[in-house]
Each structure stands twice: as C-alpha cells, then as structure tokens.
Amino acid sequence: MSVGLLILTHDSIGETLYNTAIDVIGSATLPTRVLVACMDCNTDEMLEQVRSTLQKLNDGEGVLILTDMYGATPSNIVSELLNPERVLVSGVNLPMLVRVMNYPGLKLNDLAEKAVSGGQDGILALTAGGTEK
Q1: Residue with the larger pLDDT of the pair 14 and 39
Q2: pTM for this structure?
Q3: Rounded to the nearest 10 degrees, how much is the dihedral formed by the CA atoms of 108, 109, 111, 114?
C-alpha cells in the first residue's frame, strides 16, 4: 500500500509534468491520476469527479493532491474535500513531482513535506556570479 497521488491542474499542465517526471525517474512509483480543470468547467461536476477519483486512489494510506496555483479553480475544488486522509500542496512544479515520486514509501504528511521542500529547492535565481535563492 502507498499514498495515492492526484494532480489537478488547468489544461494539460499536470499531464505534461507527470509524463516528464516518469521520463526522468523511469517509471510511475505511486498510484496516480491526473485531472484537468478547464477554465469554464462546471465546478459541481468537477467536484464530483475529484471526489470519485480520491476514493479510488485511497487504499488506506491517504492521497496527496498537487494543484498548480493556490486560489485558482483546482485548489478551490480540492479545498472542499480536505480531511486527515488528504493533503493539498499547491504550486506544483517538476522538481516537486520528481521529489514526491522518489519517495513512494513515505506516509502522507511526510510525503507532503517532501513535495514542499522539492518545490522550494527546485526554484533558483541564477546569476553570472553564482546561484541565489
């Protein structure tokens, strides 16, 4: 058993990130579903789709949910469904997703911490004289 992973983003952002992470790692390491929240989607229908997907992904270890931008439709939909078996991390990026997929044996809250640290550590401002964070 392992934590399930739901990626809910606008358009094809989530699918592209997930496919790229698999290319980097070499295989899918967590049970994962990628859903798209269109700009003009019916939020009630989307809420039901997310609810159903979360039930399918949770084998007893919980579900980590990654969305693209806090305050936008994907995170707003998921926020209504949070409970102790579901953790939302917003601001998904490739370093975050690769970090999550490299730790498939972690418990839900520990995996959420890895997601945040991976996302933050993967953001750098580079200058000619060195690296700045």
Answers
A1: 14
A2: 0.94
A3: 170
